[in-house]
Amino acid sequence: MKLPIRRKKQVVTDAETAIVPPRATFPVPIELRDHIYSFLLDHEKTRAQPYHTRPQNERGTQSEVNLRDKSVAHTYRFHTNILAVNKTINEEAKQELHRSNVFVVVSWVWPNLGSILHAFDVPIVTERQAVIARFDHCALRLHLRDPTPKSRLGGAAKVQSLLMLHADVPILCKAIRYISATCPRPATVCFKVAEAPDHEQLMFGNNNARPARTMIKFSSGSAHADTVGKQTQLLAPFEQMCMAGQKITVICASEDEEGRGTAMQHAIRRVEVLAAPHFIWIKVVAWDMLDTALALMSTANSLVQAGDLERAGEHYARICSGTLERGILNGLPERIFDSDAAPAIICAMRVFTDAAAAAGLLHLRNLEFQKAQEAENYTHGISAYISQFDIRNEVLGYEERGAWVMHAPFWHLRLLMQLTEAEPDLDSLVAQFNLAHDALPENEYIRHDLRLVSALSDEYRDGTYLTYDPEQVLRESSAMVLAPQTFIYSVPKHVARPAAIEGWVDVHQREAFAGKAGRRVEAL
Question: Which domain of life is it from (predicted)?
Answer without folding.
Answer: Eukaryota
